[in-house]
Amino acid sequence: MSAPLLRVRGLHKRFSVGGGFLARRAWLRAVDGVDLDVNSGETVGLVGESGCGKSTLGRTILRLIEADRGEISFEGQDVRAAGRRELRALRRRMQIVFQDPYASLNPRMRVGDAIGEGLGIHRIARGDARRRQVAELLETVGMRPEHASRYPHEFSGGQRQRIGIARALALRPSLIVADEPVSSLDVSIQAQILNLMLDLQKQLGVAYLFISHDLRVVKHMSDRVFVMYLGRVVEEAPSRDLYARPQHPYTESLLSAVPEPNPGGRRDRIQLSGDVPSPLAPPSGCPFHPRCPRVVERCRSETPALREIHPGHRSACHLAPL
Amino acid sequence: MTTRARGGYWHEVWRQMRSTRRAMWGLWIVASLAFVAVFADLIANEKPYYLELDGENYFPIATDYAVWLGFETWPKALVNADYRRLAERAERAVWPPIPYTATRVDITGETYAPPSREHWLGTDQLGRDVAAGMVHGVRVSLTIGLIVVAIQATLGILLGALAGFYAGWIDLVLSRFFELMLGIPTFFLIITVAAIFPPSIYLIMAILGLTGWVGIARFVRAEFFKVRAQEFVAAAQGLGGSHARVMLRHILPNAIAPVLVAMSFGVATAILTESGLSFLGIGVPQHLVTWGSILAVARSNTFAWWLAVFPGLAIFLTVTAYNLLGDGLRDALDPKLDVR
Hints:
The complex is a heterodimer.
Chain A: E1 6-17, E2 26-38, E3 43-47, H1 54-61, E4 69-74, E5 77-78, H2 84-93, E6 94-97, H3 111-121, H4 127-140, H5 157-169, E7 175-179, H6 187-204, E8 207-212, H7 215-221, E9 224-229, E10 232-238, H8 239-244, H9 249-256, H10 297-301, E11 307-310, E12 313-315
Helix pairs in contact in A: 3-4, 3-5, 4-5, 5-6
Chain B: H1 9-18, H2 21-38, H3 40-43, E1 50-53, E2 56-58, H4 60-69, H5 83-89, E3 92-94, H6 130-166, H7 168-182, H8 186-196, H9 201-211, H10 214-228, H11 231-238, H12 243-255, H13 257-280, H14 291-300, H15 305-333
Antiparallel strand pairs in B: 1-2, 1-3
């Protein structure tokens, strides 16, 4: 395989929490040494509970948040070292779709202006040419060209998410970071948006980094899946493999919590005890050990590294293969 | 919030405003005052609109503007003319509703004349027509209000936006600067400056403008903090938008509403301050007739009630109108206060 489209190595990002002039600051490790690859045209799923750092990771890749340490390279270019002009050029090729379709559109801007803004910033099209492209984009995402002259508040959540996708597509990016794109939508609308995204991928060959806490959605979308826990990747596998043979107790418990459509074939649910530990004071050893049903003595002291269990399937658990 | 309004946000605000009676009163009074200020020369003027003299047609007020703009020079017959005397031997003359100028001393008339048909609102200690003074006072008051607020809004929006957008140490430094500015006692500063420099209305505008922007800056800063965290701002940055673009096109339009309210209140405050200064005779040149300076004459001549009542009412009405307008704007801009 050729070099990946996006290559992330050892990425760290911490936020300072509280702390004032004299008070001591606490540090929240949102992203704690993540490695991640996304190949051209594929969809990589990123799952984890809320607060595990998956959104931070997505935004750090686009440099909407600056990382502390680590490498990000996109199409062979060092993202973190990019200057203002280079960064602007990079942003033409990687885009983001947000979770909240209400907050992600400027309420004072007409839909057409919002979708066409990137075309203006990068001097791709102006005037009539821009209007034509905006109309095409609206049709691509299943809306009508005349919607361009309306304001966001005139649309439903699902329609707004389509607008958000059109805005991201306007620059013909090769990667779209989709940050929980359907989490705030009704289930029936979720399916429409997900299928739209899959269709667009087939048409345009765009790669997705698909961030979600919903394992079913990730399964539907992804070729490969990364599971995050407290800022770290704990398991990485091709989608089918991960769902069939999870190799980390955390993944096992997540999978067991997915509601089953047929009650007869229900597996035993693994109930996790306790809450997610505070990322301000992560546990020693394996970050998952306080809640792990399979915990052994070694987990408390020694942090497990990601190891390849099967080809393409890596897990950060001392006990793997499970 | 409704989802029907096609015209967008400002359309909705206007609908909301129209349904508030107090706000509309404020708006009407403000609009009328603006009208009077713009056309003050046509309402109160010692020159006639039209004068037919020795078979010649003259338009002295129009000529006055033309001369001021440098298009014309005064015709010989009108140089240093006393129009009242000219009118006596003129074939025809058409006068403005108030045929006096604010600063014109009516030599034939009496001083401290009570309101009459000749002088609607009476005259002052020099025999100047109070009605004319009131009309030109609108101009002074509104000019001061608007220029002061324009300076305040420019500085307040600029510095507030920088503090709110960049946060961090830039915000830390700017916020301390805001606090420092709040500590400056404006009134005493004006008194001090008035003692050093010759009285000038521009100086007062500059001082009020340069010291009074902190409120607006703090509003803008808080709004920028709030709006900046929304995802559409990140989206604009993700598209490659520059800081200036993100601030001007995305954050500012969503942060401007409270500024408009503050500006409306700011006009009222500036007018009140200027009236107070004129009343005390500080900083405003003697020859300039303002509402406050008319009031000041009444202070030592309490029998001349018209010198106190009319300017007092005018100040009250104007300040109230701007406050009502600001109040109505605040309600209209706040969707949570929708009374309907």
